[in-house]
Amino acid sequence: MIIFANNHGKSNAAKTAGFVLPLTLWMIALFGLGIAAINNWVSTAVENARTLQQKSESDLMAANITNELVYAIATQPMSPRGLEVGLEINNPGQGDPMALMASINESSDYIALDGRPYLLEGNIDYTIQIQDGRGLMNLQSVTSERLRRLLALFDIPETLRNQLPDTLADWMDADDLTRLTGAEKYEYERQRRFPPRNENLLTPMEAQNILGWDGIPEVWAADLRAPLFTTCRIAGFNPNTAPETILLSYISGLTKDAASNVIEQRKVSPFRSGREFMSATGSLLAAEPFFFSVVPGNCFIVDLTHRESGRRVRYSLSLVPSSQNKPWQVDYAFNIPSQINEPSDGLSPRLAFPTPETLNPVIGGDNRVSGLR
Q1: What is the mean pLDDT of the chain?
Q2: Who contacts 260 (Cβ-Cβ below 8 Å, separation ≥6)?
Q3: Fewer CB in 10 Å around end: N or C, the chain?
Protein backbone atom coordinates (compact mmCIF):
# COMPACT_ATOMS: atom_id res chain seq x y z
CA MET A 1 0.00 0.00 0.00
CA ILE A 2 1.40 3.31 -1.04
CA ILE A 3 0.85 6.32 1.27
CA PHE A 4 1.36 9.81 -0.14
CA ALA A 5 2.39 12.68 2.13
CA ASN A 6 -0.31 15.37 2.72
CA ASN A 7 1.71 18.28 1.40
CA HIS A 8 -1.47 20.17 0.52
CA GLY A 9 -2.49 20.51 4.21
CA LYS A 10 0.93 21.72 5.20
CA SER A 11 0.83 24.27 2.41
CA ASN A 12 -2.53 25.65 3.61
CA ALA A 13 -1.27 25.89 7.20
CA ALA A 14 1.79 27.78 6.05
CA LYS A 15 -0.32 30.16 4.00
CA THR A 16 -2.66 30.74 6.95
CA ALA A 17 0.26 31.45 9.25
CA GLY A 18 1.73 33.79 6.65
CA PHE A 19 -1.58 35.70 6.44
CA VAL A 20 -2.19 35.99 10.21
CA LEU A 21 1.15 37.66 10.89
CA PRO A 22 0.63 40.63 8.51
CA LEU A 23 -2.98 40.95 9.71
CA THR A 24 -1.79 41.11 13.30
CA LEU A 25 0.81 43.72 12.41
CA TRP A 26 -1.80 45.78 10.55
CA MET A 27 -4.19 45.59 13.50
CA ILE A 28 -1.43 46.68 15.89
CA ALA A 29 -0.57 49.56 13.56
CA LEU A 30 -4.21 50.60 13.30
CA PHE A 31 -4.61 50.45 17.08
CA GLY A 32 -1.46 52.54 17.40
CA LEU A 33 -2.79 55.10 14.94
CA GLY A 34 -6.10 55.16 16.77
CA ILE A 35 -4.43 55.68 20.13
CA ALA A 36 -2.22 58.41 18.64
CA ALA A 37 -5.27 60.10 17.11
CA ILE A 38 -7.18 59.93 20.39
CA ASN A 39 -4.16 61.22 22.28
CA ASN A 40 -3.79 64.09 19.81
CA TRP A 41 -7.52 64.87 20.05
CA VAL A 42 -7.37 64.86 23.85
CA SER A 43 -4.28 67.08 23.84
CA THR A 44 -5.95 69.49 21.42
CA ALA A 45 -9.13 69.52 23.49
CA VAL A 46 -7.17 70.20 26.67
CA GLU A 47 -5.20 72.98 24.98
CA ASN A 48 -8.40 74.50 23.57
CA ALA A 49 -10.01 74.32 26.99
CA ARG A 50 -6.98 75.98 28.55
CA THR A 51 -7.06 78.71 25.89
CA LEU A 52 -10.78 79.26 26.39
CA GLN A 53 -10.24 79.40 30.15
CA GLN A 54 -7.47 81.97 29.74
CA LYS A 55 -9.63 84.00 27.36
CA SER A 56 -12.59 83.84 29.74
CA GLU A 57 -10.39 84.92 32.63
CA SER A 58 -8.91 87.69 30.49
CA ASP A 59 -12.37 88.86 29.41
CA LEU A 60 -13.57 88.80 33.02
CA MET A 61 -10.50 90.76 34.11
CA ALA A 62 -11.07 93.27 31.29
CA ALA A 63 -14.68 93.72 32.41
CA ASN A 64 -13.59 94.25 36.03
CA ILE A 65 -10.92 96.73 34.97
CA THR A 66 -13.44 98.59 32.83
CA ASN A 67 -15.77 98.84 35.80
CA GLU A 68 -12.93 100.18 37.96
CA LEU A 69 -12.01 102.67 35.24
CA VAL A 70 -15.61 103.86 34.92
CA TYR A 71 -15.81 104.25 38.70
CA ALA A 72 -12.62 106.32 38.76
CA ILE A 73 -13.68 108.57 35.88
CA ALA A 74 -17.18 109.04 37.28
CA THR A 75 -16.09 109.88 40.81
CA GLN A 76 -12.79 111.74 40.36
CA PRO A 77 -12.36 115.26 38.96
CA MET A 78 -10.62 116.04 35.68
CA SER A 79 -7.95 118.69 35.31
CA PRO A 80 -5.46 119.72 32.62
CA ARG A 81 -3.11 117.14 34.17
CA GLY A 82 -5.59 114.31 33.61
CA LEU A 83 -7.62 112.26 36.08
CA GLU A 84 -7.08 113.48 39.65
CA VAL A 85 -6.91 110.47 41.96
CA GLY A 86 -5.35 111.88 45.13
CA LEU A 87 -7.31 112.08 48.36
CA GLU A 88 -6.50 115.74 48.95
CA ILE A 89 -8.16 118.13 46.47
CA ASN A 90 -6.68 121.61 46.26
CA ASN A 91 -9.95 123.54 46.44
CA PRO A 92 -9.99 127.24 47.38
CA GLY A 93 -11.85 128.52 50.39
CA GLN A 94 -15.59 128.97 50.07
CA GLY A 95 -15.32 132.63 51.02
CA ASP A 96 -13.28 133.53 47.93
CA PRO A 97 -15.55 133.45 44.84
CA MET A 98 -12.83 134.78 42.51
CA ALA A 99 -10.45 132.04 43.59
CA LEU A 100 -13.22 129.49 43.13
CA MET A 101 -13.81 130.64 39.53
CA ALA A 102 -10.10 130.47 38.69
CA SER A 103 -9.42 127.24 40.55
CA ILE A 104 -8.45 123.93 39.00
CA ASN A 105 -9.31 120.78 40.90
CA GLU A 106 -5.86 119.29 41.40
CA SER A 107 -5.06 116.66 43.98
CA SER A 108 -1.96 115.08 45.41
CA ASP A 109 -1.86 112.44 42.63
CA TYR A 110 -3.12 112.08 39.08
CA ILE A 111 -3.29 109.72 36.13
CA ALA A 112 -2.17 111.21 32.81
CA LEU A 113 -4.53 110.53 29.91
CA ASP A 114 -1.99 110.81 27.11
CA GLY A 115 -1.48 107.08 26.54
CA ARG A 116 1.42 106.50 28.94
CA PRO A 117 1.35 103.02 30.56
CA TYR A 118 0.41 102.32 34.17
CA LEU A 119 0.43 99.10 36.13
CA LEU A 120 -2.89 98.13 37.65
CA GLU A 121 -2.77 98.35 41.41
CA GLY A 122 -5.34 95.56 41.66
CA ASN A 123 -3.42 93.24 39.30
CA ILE A 124 0.14 94.11 38.28
CA ASP A 125 0.04 91.41 35.58
CA TYR A 126 -1.75 94.03 33.47
CA THR A 127 -0.87 97.48 32.20
CA ILE A 128 -3.39 100.11 31.17
CA GLN A 129 -2.95 103.02 28.76
CA ILE A 130 -5.68 105.64 28.60
CA GLN A 131 -5.81 108.13 25.75
CA ASP A 132 -8.15 111.10 25.90
CA GLY A 133 -10.27 111.14 22.74
CA ARG A 134 -9.80 114.89 22.44
CA GLY A 135 -6.11 114.32 21.85
CA LEU A 136 -6.67 112.26 18.70
CA MET A 137 -7.77 112.97 15.13
CA ASN A 138 -11.54 112.61 15.06
CA LEU A 139 -12.50 111.14 11.69
CA GLN A 140 -16.08 112.31 12.16
CA SER A 141 -15.15 115.98 11.95
CA VAL A 142 -11.52 116.35 10.81
CA THR A 143 -10.86 119.06 8.24
CA SER A 144 -9.24 118.24 4.91
CA GLU A 145 -6.21 120.40 5.72
CA ARG A 146 -5.42 118.58 8.96
CA LEU A 147 -5.90 115.17 7.41
CA ARG A 148 -3.57 116.09 4.55
CA ARG A 149 -0.93 117.26 7.02
CA LEU A 150 -1.11 113.93 8.86
CA LEU A 151 -0.78 111.96 5.62
CA ALA A 152 2.19 114.10 4.60
CA LEU A 153 3.97 113.09 7.83
CA PHE A 154 3.88 109.49 6.54
CA ASP A 155 5.06 110.50 3.03
CA ILE A 156 1.76 109.45 1.47
CA PRO A 157 1.67 110.42 -2.25
CA GLU A 158 -0.03 113.71 -3.05
CA THR A 159 -2.73 112.01 -5.12
CA LEU A 160 -3.86 110.04 -2.07
CA ARG A 161 -3.52 113.07 0.20
CA ASN A 162 -6.05 114.84 -2.02
CA GLN A 163 -8.30 111.81 -2.48
CA LEU A 164 -8.73 110.51 1.07
CA PRO A 165 -10.48 113.57 2.57
CA ASP A 166 -13.02 113.50 -0.29
CA THR A 167 -13.72 109.76 -0.13
CA LEU A 168 -14.07 110.01 3.66
CA ALA A 169 -16.62 112.81 3.35
CA ASP A 170 -18.54 110.98 0.59
CA TRP A 171 -18.67 107.85 2.75
CA MET A 172 -20.41 109.71 5.57
CA ASP A 173 -22.65 112.28 3.84
CA ALA A 174 -26.27 111.48 3.06
CA ASP A 175 -26.29 112.46 -0.63
CA ASP A 176 -25.06 110.67 -3.75
CA LEU A 177 -23.12 113.63 -5.10
CA THR A 178 -19.46 112.87 -5.67
CA ARG A 179 -16.74 115.29 -4.60
CA LEU A 180 -13.87 116.15 -6.93
CA THR A 181 -11.75 113.11 -6.00
CA GLY A 182 -14.38 111.32 -3.94
CA ALA A 183 -16.47 108.21 -4.55
CA GLU A 184 -20.10 107.30 -4.14
CA LYS A 185 -22.15 104.12 -4.56
CA TYR A 186 -21.45 103.69 -8.29
CA GLU A 187 -17.66 103.66 -7.88
CA TYR A 188 -17.88 101.04 -5.12
CA GLU A 189 -20.25 98.81 -7.07
CA ARG A 190 -17.99 98.99 -10.11
CA GLN A 191 -15.14 97.63 -7.97
CA ARG A 192 -17.44 95.11 -6.26
CA ARG A 193 -17.02 96.70 -2.86
CA PHE A 194 -19.48 97.55 -0.13
CA PRO A 195 -21.08 100.93 -0.85
CA PRO A 196 -20.90 103.90 1.54
CA ARG A 197 -23.14 103.72 4.61
CA ASN A 198 -23.90 107.46 4.37
CA GLU A 199 -23.56 107.74 8.14
CA ASN A 200 -20.85 108.58 10.63
CA LEU A 201 -18.15 105.99 11.15
CA LEU A 202 -18.77 103.43 13.87
CA THR A 203 -15.07 102.76 14.42
CA PRO A 204 -11.82 104.13 12.96
CA MET A 205 -11.21 100.73 11.34
CA GLU A 206 -14.34 101.19 9.23
CA ALA A 207 -12.39 103.79 7.25
CA GLN A 208 -10.34 100.95 5.76
CA ASN A 209 -13.42 100.09 3.68
CA ILE A 210 -13.29 103.52 2.03
CA LEU A 211 -11.68 103.81 -1.39
CA GLY A 212 -8.04 104.76 -1.01
CA TRP A 213 -7.91 104.26 2.74
CA ASP A 214 -6.74 100.68 2.33
CA GLY A 215 -3.68 102.01 0.50
CA ILE A 216 -2.00 103.58 3.55
CA PRO A 217 -0.82 100.53 5.58
CA GLU A 218 1.92 102.53 7.30
CA VAL A 219 -0.67 104.85 8.81
CA TRP A 220 -2.80 101.97 10.08
CA ALA A 221 0.28 100.24 11.52
CA ALA A 222 1.14 103.41 13.43
CA ASP A 223 -2.45 103.62 14.67
CA LEU A 224 -2.19 100.08 16.04
CA ARG A 225 1.03 100.86 17.89
CA ALA A 226 -0.53 103.94 19.51
CA PRO A 227 -3.95 105.36 18.61
CA LEU A 228 -4.07 108.24 16.14
CA PHE A 229 -7.75 108.19 15.15
CA THR A 230 -11.00 108.22 17.03
CA THR A 231 -14.71 108.27 16.26
CA CYS A 232 -15.71 109.63 19.67
CA ARG A 233 -18.79 111.83 19.74
CA ILE A 234 -16.95 114.76 21.29
CA ALA A 235 -15.74 118.16 20.20
CA GLY A 236 -12.58 120.09 20.88
CA PHE A 237 -8.87 119.41 20.78
CA ASN A 238 -6.72 118.86 23.86
CA PRO A 239 -3.02 119.75 23.36
CA ASN A 240 -2.26 118.27 26.79
CA THR A 241 -3.02 114.74 25.61
CA ALA A 242 -2.27 114.78 21.86
CA PRO A 243 0.69 112.70 20.62
CA GLU A 244 3.36 114.40 18.53
CA THR A 245 1.90 113.26 15.19
CA ILE A 246 -1.48 114.77 16.02
CA LEU A 247 0.04 118.02 17.28
CA LEU A 248 1.88 118.41 13.97
CA SER A 249 -1.30 117.62 12.06
CA TYR A 250 -3.58 120.01 13.92
CA ILE A 251 -1.29 123.02 14.32
CA SER A 252 -0.23 124.54 11.01
CA GLY A 253 3.42 125.55 10.92
CA LEU A 254 4.36 123.65 14.08
CA THR A 255 7.82 122.10 13.78
CA LYS A 256 8.85 118.68 15.05
CA ASP A 257 11.16 120.27 17.63
CA ALA A 258 8.36 122.54 18.84
CA ALA A 259 6.00 119.56 19.15
CA SER A 260 8.61 117.66 21.18
CA ASN A 261 9.03 120.69 23.42
CA VAL A 262 5.25 120.85 23.93
CA ILE A 263 5.21 117.24 25.12
CA GLU A 264 8.12 117.77 27.50
CA GLN A 265 6.69 121.02 28.84
CA ARG A 266 3.23 119.63 29.55
CA LYS A 267 4.77 116.78 31.59
CA VAL A 268 6.06 119.42 33.99
CA SER A 269 3.17 121.87 33.76
CA PRO A 270 0.16 121.25 31.50
CA PHE A 271 -1.35 124.03 29.45
CA ARG A 272 -4.29 125.62 31.23
CA SER A 273 -5.70 127.64 28.31
CA GLY A 274 -5.52 127.92 24.55
CA ARG A 275 -3.74 131.24 24.95
CA GLU A 276 -1.03 129.60 27.06
CA PHE A 277 -0.54 126.93 24.40
CA MET A 278 -0.36 129.48 21.58
CA SER A 279 2.19 131.50 23.52
CA ALA A 280 4.37 128.43 24.09
CA THR A 281 4.27 127.34 20.43
CA GLY A 282 4.20 130.72 18.73
CA SER A 283 0.95 129.74 16.99
CA LEU A 284 -1.91 132.08 16.22
CA LEU A 285 -5.31 130.39 16.22
CA ALA A 286 -7.59 133.39 16.49
CA ALA A 287 -10.20 131.83 14.21
CA GLU A 288 -10.81 128.97 16.65
CA PRO A 289 -11.38 130.47 20.10
CA PHE A 290 -13.62 127.61 21.23
CA PHE A 291 -11.75 124.78 19.54
CA PHE A 292 -9.24 124.12 22.31
CA SER A 293 -10.11 122.26 25.48
CA VAL A 294 -7.29 121.69 27.93
CA VAL A 295 -9.37 119.27 30.02
CA PRO A 296 -10.09 115.68 28.83
CA GLY A 297 -13.52 114.86 27.45
CA ASN A 298 -15.88 111.97 28.13
CA CYS A 299 -14.48 109.47 25.61
CA PHE A 300 -11.28 107.47 26.04
CA ILE A 301 -9.29 104.94 24.03
CA VAL A 302 -8.05 102.25 26.42
CA ASP A 303 -5.30 99.70 25.77
CA LEU A 304 -5.24 96.81 28.24
CA THR A 305 -2.20 94.52 28.03
CA HIS A 306 -1.41 91.26 29.78
CA ARG A 307 2.30 91.56 30.51
CA GLU A 308 3.16 87.85 30.34
CA SER A 309 1.16 86.75 27.29
CA GLY A 310 1.37 90.10 25.48
CA ARG A 311 -2.34 89.97 24.66
CA ARG A 312 -3.54 93.54 24.15
CA VAL A 313 -7.13 94.69 23.81
CA ARG A 314 -8.11 98.16 22.69
CA TYR A 315 -11.54 99.59 23.28
CA SER A 316 -13.29 102.92 23.16
CA LEU A 317 -15.07 103.89 26.37
CA SER A 318 -17.64 106.70 26.43
CA LEU A 319 -19.46 108.18 29.39
CA VAL A 320 -23.15 108.70 28.62
CA PRO A 321 -24.74 109.99 31.85
CA SER A 322 -28.05 110.69 30.10
CA SER A 323 -28.47 107.08 28.94
CA GLN A 324 -31.47 105.20 30.31
CA ASN A 325 -29.57 101.89 30.44
CA LYS A 326 -26.19 102.66 32.02
CA PRO A 327 -24.03 105.77 32.22
CA TRP A 328 -21.23 104.36 30.05
CA GLN A 329 -20.75 102.28 26.94
CA VAL A 330 -18.00 100.44 25.09
CA ASP A 331 -18.16 101.82 21.56
CA TYR A 332 -15.97 99.09 20.07
CA ALA A 333 -13.23 96.65 21.05
CA PHE A 334 -10.65 94.58 19.20
CA ASN A 335 -7.39 92.69 19.77
CA ILE A 336 -4.08 94.22 18.75
CA PRO A 337 -1.85 91.77 16.77
CA SER A 338 0.91 90.38 18.98
CA GLN A 339 3.69 91.52 16.63
CA ILE A 340 2.60 95.13 17.23
CA ASN A 341 2.89 94.93 21.02
CA GLU A 342 5.83 96.50 22.79
CA PRO A 343 7.42 95.27 26.06
CA SER A 344 6.11 96.86 29.24
CA ASP A 345 9.05 96.01 31.50
CA GLY A 346 10.60 98.58 33.78
CA LEU A 347 7.36 100.11 35.04
CA SER A 348 7.48 101.04 38.69
CA PRO A 349 4.76 99.65 40.99
CA ARG A 350 4.41 103.22 42.23
CA LEU A 351 3.06 104.12 38.78
CA ALA A 352 -0.20 102.28 39.35
CA PHE A 353 -3.78 102.90 38.38
CA PRO A 354 -5.63 102.85 41.72
CA THR A 355 -8.42 100.51 42.72
CA PRO A 356 -11.82 101.78 43.95
CA GLU A 357 -10.74 100.85 47.48
CA THR A 358 -7.75 103.16 47.14
CA LEU A 359 -9.80 105.99 45.68
CA ASN A 360 -12.43 105.68 48.38
CA PRO A 361 -11.02 104.68 51.79
CA VAL A 362 -14.56 104.09 53.04
CA ILE A 363 -14.72 101.04 50.75
CA GLY A 364 -11.51 99.30 51.69
CA GLY A 365 -9.44 101.41 54.06
CA ASP A 366 -6.76 103.96 53.24
CA ASN A 367 -4.19 101.87 51.37
CA ARG A 368 -3.26 104.77 49.15
CA VAL A 369 -0.30 104.24 46.77
CA SER A 370 1.58 107.52 46.74
CA GLY A 371 3.48 109.10 43.91
CA LEU A 372 1.14 108.33 41.01
CA ARG A 373 2.29 110.08 37.84
Answers
A1: 84
A2: 244
A3: N
